[in-house]
Amino acid sequence: MEQALKGMKVIDLSQVLAGPYCTMVLGDMGADVIKVEKYPKGDDTRTMGPYIHEESYMYMMVNRNKRGMCLNLKTEEGLNVFYELIKDADVIVENYRPGVTKKLGIDYDHLKVINPNLIYCSISGYGQTGPYRNKGGFDIMAQGLSGLIDMTGDKEGKPAKVGIAIHDIAAAETAIQSILTAYIHRLKGGKGQYIDISLVDSGLAWTVWEAAAYFGKGEVAQRNGTAHRVSAPYQGFKTKDGFILIGAGNQKLWENLCRHVLHKPEWTQEQRFLTNSIRAENVVELEAEIENVLTTESSDYWLDLLDKHGIPSGPILSYDQALHNEQIQSREMILDYEHPVGGSMKTLGFPAKFSATPGQLVKPAPLLGQHNKEILAELGYSDETVEQLVRDTILNDNADKSGIR
């Protein structure tokens, strides 16, 4: 089956999540992604459990559809191998702290001399410029700096981190769209270029509603639990046996909710709830009034009734329930595959459904150094030379020692 990015060569120097997620998606779309891991132990994610036969499940989740090398870039011989590798590369992705690549001799200014067409993408906590450029920055620090933690959680509770590493994924998605934009530019006759991605910038760019409220009215986003900032009712509500979500965010849906589900037609004329903006201002009172009704019946009862009247609603699932949900299963968001060490495995599917060039799970995440010989053979290195590089501590061939190729 055809893949959209077949022929694109990507060198992945990144580790943990933001960079590897970016290159995983490129690999899913057909790019030849070569993951060059640091010598001798590889990506730090390899040390994170859970483990399946001593292989990290965390590592395997974001490194599918890649070939793997383990190369010592702190040696002259290792650098020479790397320079050969990038001569015909289209893209390089790295997430070292600013300044480290220059010390290693693998920064953009150095590599663009070797390959002027190279698209070089750096991902870091705070970006390559600004007073924070040299600070170490993980996802949680980015959530704190962007205001995300302060605006997340219950109104009367403590600030809360978003449940996933949202700035890491935001940075990955920003990197993907930026790399593809630069690639299209190059296909149109342009040259390669440098892309500077910040975790903070990437997540902050998603706060569009909050920015509108602040720039337009001076309002600072507050913790609202599940409530929306400008739309109501649009949140979670307590029922007799749990919680459900209701999104009656426009006037027609609100009136249908009142008349046909809650059997409170008088609310449509009440001054406190007359328009969407007024309801949002009185959301605490609105929540209490609605829950007085909802707590008389079960979640299933209300969800059935809401569906019957076309009002957007849904359950609040635990993560295991989500993975077994019939909608998620039917969309093939859980994939089965075989790993040479882990055996039968599961991973997440492809969120975009292409009619002609769908994402494909072609290969599992590489073992450490699994494709050293294969990749170097493509560059003209003999088996004897590769074996000498292993003896000289330039390459780690851990996969060879396991007997798996």
From TrEMBL:
State whether keyword Acetylation applies.
Answer: no
This protein's superkingdom? Bacteria
Q: Which UniProt keywords apply?
A: Transferase
One annotated GO molecular function: transferase activity
**A Pfam entry, by short name:** CoA_transf_3
Checking Gene3D superfamilies in the record gives: Crotonobetainyl-coa:carnitine coa-transferase, domain 1, formyl-coa transferase, domain 3
Which SUPFAM superfamilies does the record associate with it? CoA-transferase family III (CaiB/BaiF)
Kindly give the PANTHER family that the UniProt entry links to this protein: SUCCINATE--HYDROXYMETHYLGLUTARATE COA-TRANSFERASE (PTHR48207)
Q: What is this protein called?
A: CaiB/BaiF CoA transferase family protein
What is the scientific name of the source organism? Oceanobacillus longus
